[in-house]
Design brief:
Order of helices and strands: HHHHHHHHHHHHHHHHHHHHH
Radius of gyration: 21 Å
Distance between the termini: 47 Å
Structural class: mainly alpha
Number of strands: 0
Oligomer: single chain
Length: 457
Amino acid sequence: MTVRVTWVQPEDLVGHELRQAAEDGRDARDVARRWYEAGGAPAPERAGASTPPAPELRALAERLLDELALLDSPSAVDEPTDRAAIRAACPDWPAPRTDAPAVSRDRLHAAWLGRAAGCLLGKPVEKLPLEGIRALARATGNWPLTTWFTAKGLPAPLAATYPWNRRSAPNSLAENIDGMPEDDDLNYPLLTVLLIQRYGPSFTTGDLARLWLDELPAGRTFTAERVAYRNLLDGVEPPHTARYRNPFREWIGAQIRADVHGWTNPGDPAAAAEQAHRDAVLSHTANGVYGAMFTAAALAEAAGGGSDVHGCLATGLRVVPPRSRFARAVRFGIAAARDNADFDAVTDRLHAEYGRYHWVHVLPNAALLAAALTHADGDFSLSVCRAVSGGWDTDSNGATAGSLAGLLAGAPSLLPDRWTTPLKNRLASSVPGFDSIGFDELAEQTHRLTHKEALCP
């Protein structure tokens, strides 16, 4: 009997690592030749495991993964992971704040609701190609996207061609939403609340590792987080957990963990980015880490209440090495949005530039997030709809866009009812102590984390 555990079995990782090598400039031709001659498979386009299973290649896969880790990457000089090296590479790093403004419970409440609504909007079309998302929405009179996806009135042949996300279809379509269902894009912010409650804002990466092992079910982890979790169980210490046999280390996972670091450092993007770095390096490196730092800094700027969306994006870029591929992706997305009033044309341009990447990689999603937020110009509905309608990691992009746009709105009453009413002030989660919690209570708990004198563990 073969047990399939996606995202961690070595024979499933080699193809992904070869793809990562091509992206960061390593010469892996010899390794690739030996892998394919042995019958190994390339990285699957959308899945976490190769088909069919190949456990007989496991020993070879382990050797090749270790060989690939020793290859030099020409991009490393411009894309450091060490925090001091990142700061040294950023000429406009934000100055620390000693007089940071307060953030209200209402603003944090809107951020939680925005994150949930944007995530929920993207859930049923997660993993679908762009043409499928467009076809499903057009067939039900919802293009350009303005509200929840629905299966009502959808022609059966189209539904068969582009099936909804299997896990999300029962609870994420307009006709069946009943509160916010569980999702890793919400579980990780909950864990960050726990992290700061338990260890304070000066937590270490080791503290986060202990929290995961104590409170995060292994089956609720994916991609880089699942590899890091496996590494912890194997006795690998952070930050090596991010590098060891982890081809997903520059995917989007660390970015979806960054929100609370930004929310709880209003007006202090440097502090938010530094917290996000300590979190991210458990599972990610380089551009994967920059996604978390960029997001935390942008959200901290928004939480301070003194900037518009464009200022927030500019602040996020201040904590990212400017010669990195992540910075280039964000700048590309912003420029594309400014150049065209038609967001479909913007999206087509992004996919032409970044379509070669896996749909969960941080770079295409960073470009899309920046483009969606720029094009929406602070409007909440436009922000989440553009982020989701652009494809790739739809629920994660919708969540981050909704978080930032919710902060900028400033209060739940300023978010359209069609997004907040179906949430029913209820979040499902397998994180202990949070199942069925209300977003108002989450706002209260998060608000308490902004009072640093109360954060002594």
